[in-house]
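Weekly structure sync, notes
Attendees: PL (lead), two postdocs, one rotation student
Agenda item 3: pending single-chain targets
PL asked that the sequence for the first pending target be pasted directly into the notes so everyone works from the same version. It is reproduced below exactly as submitted, 209 residues in total.
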Amino acid sequence: MQISDRQILSNIQSPRIASLRRTTGETDVQVTINLDGTGVCNAATGVPFLDHMLHQIASHGLIDLDIQATGDLHIDDHHTNEDVGITLGQAISKALGDRKGIVRFGHFLAPLDEALIQVALDFSGRPHLSYGLEIPTQRVGTYDTQLVREFFVAIVNNSQMTLHIRQLDGINSHHIIEATFKAFARATRVAVEIDPRRAGMIPSSKGVL
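Predicted structure, written out during the meeting:
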């Protein structure tokens, strides 16, 4: 009897959902994530541009996200931006569990008008960020563009992924950043998919990630 890929997936995959709350003297962040979602996003961080980018991760990654955050925005957006990245990274790691059966690697090249961004990532268990964006302006609206790197540093360190971001073209800051988040979302979508040929195995020759 032949067993379809869909039957294999249903046998080895349970819903990959995680909820976390992280509270410090600077922020209070709550994240719920479903890696097997449809792209539903409810983001209220108090940082409008960050909310817009979180919607890109959900929509293009087919990840359901609920992210609620309060922070010391009277100082600036730094702590909230970073702590959302930390908590989201932890939630991704928790939802992935032992990472059995996942594709593990993801790559995507995203155009947005004149901007072209390449993202390659590996849920390797070894945090590393190689960041190649050259964003021409200091702000997009009220958002400090230096915070893009800080967000991805937080994601990488807490999800334990290797992440390479390359800017191949682009002169508009908004386009560059949004293309980056879209490429990250699509690469993540590829990497966290269940590979039916893995049949629940750890995707590493070492047997552990």
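Discussion points:
- Strands lie at 17-23, 27-34, 41-44, 64-71, 105-112, 115-122, 128-132, 139-140, 143-144, 162-169.
- The longest helix spans residues 173-192.
Action: rotation student to compare against the earlier draft before next sync.
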